[in-house]
Design brief:
The chain is α/β, with parallel strands linked by helices and 347 residues long. It folds into two domains: 231 residues, Periplasmic binding protein-like II (D-Maltodextrin-Binding Protein, domain 2, 3-Layer(aba) Sandwich), CATH 3.40.190.10; 94 residues, Periplasmic binding protein-like II (D-Maltodextrin-Binding Protein, domain 2), CATH 3.40.190.10. It is 37% helix and 18% strand. It has 13 helices and twelve strands. The strands form three sheets. The protein has a five-stranded mixed beta sheet with strand order 4-3-5-12-6, with helices on both faces. It has a five-stranded mixed beta sheet with strand order 9-8-10-7-11. Helix 1 crosses helix 10 and helix 6 packs parallel to helix 7.
């Protein structure tokens, strides 16, 4: 089910950054759609399993996060006896604070929402991973014709610490451009807001994740760099939760994992449903933009939901530049494979 809920951001524990605002509910997101196939009727000898609840959040209005929306739209959570409530929280800091306070039990987010918080005692684990590489494009004003011309320019992204920020840092570094020295990264707040900032001229270029990049292209902005073919490892989309929640709500998390796996399969097999759901949540109406975003994510989406240790290591390498404590940890310290192993054994 979905409903508005003002998520109060608690101060993140130990050394986590403080959040002062409230997490935004998915008020602009569509309500749940038609239910999927009903589960088999219980026999007289067996009662249906008790329904469980799970409060979860997603962090960006992008195509890669749509399996969560599809699971709700198609009634997949309901099929597994799970009452899942979805919230949109675009800030990594707010997401972590909401998980630490218990207001959100699990979240879809990027790698910085696990490694850095854990160094400060959060004990958050990745338990599924559907996007284990960076995907997106650097888009710019038409008069900017090369990556080198971004020197001294303002490059937009959603928020510091988010996927688009990391993508911009890593991709531009390969062309000798360093953040805060050669380019100025500016947080716009979200994917639609980044497109708006580019259109308004408040930024010169932007690191964008589909379908925002195609919306920018439709408005006349040009591609400087396609990051997707660079195959840069990164845990761009993962399901995360505190280890205490994974233990206390083992059955609910397992039901979520099954429903999410079904949603990934439905994403890949039911193109029209996926396009409709992506369009409803992102508010993108351009068919070509939606189709391009869909195909990019379909090609790299991991059906087995297995997180990549190489992708986690990439985040650790970046964090090591500012926090040497990460050198005393291993990628395995940030991942719990129990649920995806169980999924592999049953399918």
């Amino acid at each position: 089910m979905r409903g508005p809920l003002a998520l109060t951001c608690f101060v993140a524990l130990l050394a986590l950054a403080a959040c002062s605002g409230s997490a935004a509910p998915a008020s602009s997101a569509p309500s749940a759609g038609s239910a999927g196939a009903a589960p088999p009727a219980a026999t007289a000898a067996e009662a249906p399993p008790a329904r469980l609840t799970l409060a979860t959040s997603y962090s960006a209005l992008v195509a890669s996060q749509s399996p969560l929306w599809i699971a709700q739209d198609a009634g997949l959570f309901d099929r597994y006896g799970l009452d899942a409530t979805l919230y949109y929280i675009s800030s990594t800091q707010q997401t972590v604070a909401a998980m630490l306070s218990g207001e959100v039990e699990m979240a879809l987010n990027g790698g910085t929402g696990v490694v850095e918080p854990n160094l400060n005692g959060a004990d958050i684990a990745i338990f599924t991973g559907t996007k284990n590489q960076l995907a997106g494009r650097i888009m710019a004003r038409p008069e900017i014709t090369s990556v080198a011309e971004l020197r001294g320019k303002r490059v937009g992204m959603t928020r510091r610490g988010g996927n688009s920020h990391y993508m911009g840092i890593v991709a531009l570094a390969r062309f000798g451009l360093e953040p805060d020295r050669d380019v100025i990264f500016i947080g716009a707040g979200g994917s639609p807001e980044t497109v708006t900032a580019l259109s308004a001229g408040s930024i010169d270029a932007a690191a964008m994740i589909s379908p925002a990049d195609y919306e920018a292209e439709r408005r006349g902005f040009k591609e400087l760099l396609d990051v997707t073919p660079m195959n840069i490892p990164y845990p761009a989309l993962q399901s995360t939760a505190r280890r205490a929640v994974l233990a206390a709500k083992d059955e609910a998390i397992w039901r979520y994992t099954q429903a999410f796996a079904d949603a990934v399969q439905l994403y890949k097999s039911d193109r029209e449903r996926a396009l409709r759901v992506i369009g409803e949540y992102t508010k993108v109406e351009d068919r070509a933009a939606l189709e391009n975003a869909y195909e990019i994510e379909r090609a790299i989406m991991a059906s087995d939901l297995r997180p990549s240790l190489a992708a986690v290591q990439a985040v650790m390498d970046e964090v090591a530049n500012t926090d040497p404590r990460v050198l005393d940890t291993r990628p395995e310290d940030y991942v719990d494979f129990k649920f995806v192993d169980r999924l592999a054994a049953t399918r």
